[in-house]
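Retro notes, item 3 of 5
We never archived the inputs for the heme C complex last cycle. Fixing that now. Sequence and ligand:
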Amino acid sequence: MGKAFRGTATRATGLAALFGLVAIGTAGCKQAEAQGGGAPAAALAFRDSVDNPPPGPGRVFRLSADYPKAMPGPCAECAWLNIPVSFDTNFPPKSSPNEWTQGKWADYIGAILTYVRQGQDPNLADAVGFRTDIGGGTRWFNVPWMAYDPSVGREFRHGTTNERTAELEDLVGPDGKPLPADADSIGAAHFLPQMTTACKQRYPRGFETWSVGYYNPHGGYAIGKAIPKDGVPKVVDYMGAPMPDGLPFPVGTAVVKVLTTNAPVDCVPFLAGSPEWRVNRHVMNPNTKEYMCKREVQVSRIVQIDVAVTDPRSPTGWVYGTYAYNGTQKGATFWDRLTPLGVQWGADPWTFPAVPKRDSLALQQSVANPKLDIFQHMGCQGRLAGPVDNPQSSCMSCHSSAYAARPGAKSVMGTNVPPSFGFDGLCTAYSADNAAYFQTTRPPQSFPGGKYPHAMSLDTSLQLEVALQQYGQYATSKAPQPCKDPS
Ligand code: HEC
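Structure as it came back at the time:
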């Protein structure tokens, strides 16, 4: 799993640069016209995809960006908010072997799934995709500025992105500086549990994750304030600290992310029967098996559904949870074959490597589903992570590093914003960096450790981090980083 970080690094040129420019030249202008000739920032921020759909019929993704203009009322469908779960920590920790069922976390994550699947196609079929209009209104909204980067930006069929933008891929070296770009692969690659050795040989660079995320009306309201119609992120004062307008996300926010993998079923048997989405993703070089800038519409399979909800009882304000697709499980529809893996609402700062091993306490802010037979998926020291996630990280630790430079400036991980995806010694030894990364914080707190005093909290939204990063790229360079094929 050496390369199973949510991606290895990448930078880009050549063909794909042209690709990016072509996309700006046509799609961007068309939208600018459609929006009444608005500022270029608006057209780029709110365009549907970085690539151009071919002419003719066929599925095309449309960015859902008609955000609610007023704060929606209390979320009547957010049944999980009324489930009596406990966020308490105890010193020493209490042993509670049946926390998942008796502690009602199974009910909690079940209630979120009920909300997420409402009105969706039973098999989340390729021709239908993820529906945004549910019960006569818009239920789900996307984040702008994610269709700017030609390497990993939104594709036209399902709006998926290759996990994150080039800049965000940088791993941070021992000196705290970003490592030089690794030209090995374009985007985020992962391996999966239960993969045979023969498959590892067929896919030595691993598989690509292309995913798409949606915020419900409460979250959409906040996103619309953070990035208004002009496409320029808006920052206001929140409790004495700068934060994007609309944040922290209000109570009632729910976020869902659909993750796909290009792993074939003969490599990963638990993917049998998973929805096959055709996405415009990177072509693999048949000789080197590396992923290239060039994109083609190819089959990917849904492997994981991630969710995040705000809950005022949580010390971070959030609960993260994940479901893995399990084709070996009985169930009439795709949704019935999802297995919840666990929940997490903090990064367990009393557990190694946030503290030395001898002081390490049992986990208290992650609860795993004890009935997992097929997946080996947990993150650092048993904290929650999904099958395609970096096993050295965890949902909350990676997401707690969602910070940005002030709008218009570039965010560089390890320099002016914390590293999200990795740094020397991640999860392996007690260190100041690990202690900062595995902390439980709440906005507008700055990132722990004092290294990034000017980075502003994005209340765990890494999609907003991508958006602000891309806006910073636009504001400083007026062009995206071009895509560069692995040499
Ligand atoms: C090593 C980093 C990393 C880990 C670990 C990680 N994520 Fe994320 N996640 C990201 C990035 C980057 C994005 C934004 C880009 C995108 O949507 O792909 C994201 C986006 C999301 C979103 C959409 C909202 C947002 O915050 O941007 C949700 C929901 C989410 N992740 C849930 C989870 C859950 C649940 C887990 C654990 C099972 C998890 N993530 C683990 C990096 C991570």
